[in-house]
Amino acid sequence: MHILVVEDEQRLGALLRRVLSEERHTVDVAATGPDGLHMAGTDTYDLVILDVMLPGMDGIDVCRQLRTYDVQTPVLMLTARGTVDDRVRGLNAGADDYLVKPFAMEEMLARVNALLRRRNRDLEMSEEIRVDDLVLDQVRHEVRRGDRLIDLTPKEFALLEFLMRHPGQVLTRTQITDHVWRYDLDALSNVVDTYIHYLRDKIDRGFERTLIRTVRGVGYKIQD
Ligand code: CA
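Above: the input record for the complex with calcium ion. Below: its predicted structure, written as tokens.
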């Protein structure tokens, strides 16, 4: 799983990175509120561990902004003061759980695992993803646009699913490669453009409204 840690205390940030990496997670660390907001808002993490007291912008505002942008990544808030007020503010801002500092690493891991399990369950529950008249059915492994059944290769299906899970959100070529071609070491630099071209041919060609958009100089998004 891909986890973002937003923590300005270097030693704690490094410790969290080490402990989570040992559990085979991929970990990025941001040290300020604005950096954390930018990274969580533009990348697609499975979980964000967010300190409340941060330079630039506090964790509560970061969390609130993420939810305003419709980023639904689970957030585990780290609060230094065990006051009810901080916890309530965090949860009201859209955090999913909180940990009071100082905490034991075992407890942190237990909370992280619970949030990741819950997220996976939610993702599995949503068997159908829909963008406009385009529907992707994960269980049947089928894609339809309107009443037309569309035949996709496994990679095309994975790419479309990734786009559809982030409707309206621009995804960079790097993000797409990381998610769709993660284990293919031979993925070429233009593989994303090539597959977007294949997908467009199957999803958008012949339809009045095109769903896959190019965001010049950045990447791609799907939008209804
Ligand atoms: Ca802090």
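Notes for the reader.
The mean pLDDT is 89.
Residues 7 and 31 are 5 Å apart (CA to CA).
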